[in-house]
TrEMBL record:
Primary role: Thiol-specific peroxidase that catalyzes the reduction of hydrogen peroxide and organic hydroperoxides to water and alcohols, respectively. Plays a role in cell protection against oxidative stress by detoxifying peroxides and as sensor of hydrogen peroxide-mediated signaling events.
An MF annotation (GO) of this entry: thioredoxin-dependent peroxiredoxin activity
Xref: Pfam families: AhpC-TSA
Lineage: Bacteria, Thermotogati, Deinococcota, Deinococci, Deinococcales
Thioredoxin domain boundaries: 3-153
Name of this protein: thioredoxin-dependent peroxiredoxin
SUPFAM superfamilies in UniProt: Thioredoxin-like
Enzymatic reactions: a hydroperoxide + [thioredoxin]-dithiol = an alcohol + [thioredoxin]-disulfide + H2O
Family membership: Belongs to the peroxiredoxin family. BCP/PrxQ subfamily.
EC number annotated for this UniProt entry: 1.11.1.24
InterPro entries in the record: AhpC/TSA (IPR000866), Peroxiredoxin_AhpC-typ (IPR024706), Peroxiredoxin_BCP/PrxQ (IPR050924), Thioredoxin-like_sf (IPR036249), Thioredoxin_domain (IPR013766)
Alphabetical keyword list: Antioxidant, Disulfide bond, Oxidoreductase, Peroxidase, Redox-active center
Length: 155
């Protein structure tokens, strides 16, 4: 099944690295930036996470929540959160449930089972509004903010 912009985003229920529940249903009524990254604590993933963290006040002002997902363990995600000073939820997806549901398994044709660096913008009604593939961790946060502002009629 291929995800299509304009269709409902796949629902999910998961626990963040700190054990708190995170679900798409629970985030209804706000924009959701659901971003997948390959491996916690690697240079590109750290840069991307820190850029999202720095922009959190702007995302919050626009009514958006940021959620990060990788196929790492809960312990690795927690260490990543602490080392990067992150305050948004990180979902450990060791079983690759979310990565499969969103079609982002990568690494040697999926053999490594890593999540590809992709982002999904989900509108307040739970509809997939935009999808970015193979993003640049240095510039991606600005792209997401610009798209969100465009959708809100601010640019």
């Amino acid at each position: 099944m291929s995800l299509q912009v304009g269709h409902p985003a796949p629902l999910f229920e998961a626990r963040s690295d700190d054990g708190r529940p995170v679900s798409l249903t629970g985030l209804r009524g706000q924009w959701v930036v659901l971003y997948f990254y390959p491996r916690a604590s690697t240079p590109g993933c750290s840069i991307e996470a820190q850029r999202f963290e720095s922009a959190l006040p702007e995302f919050e002002r626009l009514g958006a929540t940021v959620v990060g997902v990788s196929t790492d363990t809960e312990a690795r995600q927690a260490k990543f959160r602490d080392s990067c000073g992150l305050s948004f939820p990180l979902i450990p997806d060791g079983e690759k449930t979310l990565a499969r549901r969103y079609g982002v398994i990568s690494g040697l044709g999926g053999l490594l089972g890593l999540a590809a660096r992709e982002t999904f913008l989900i509108d307040p009604a739970g509809v997939l509004a935009h999808r970015w593939r193979s993003v640049n961790p240095h510039t991606h946060t600005a792209e997401v903010l610009t798209e969100l502002e465009r959708r809100l009629g601010l640019v």
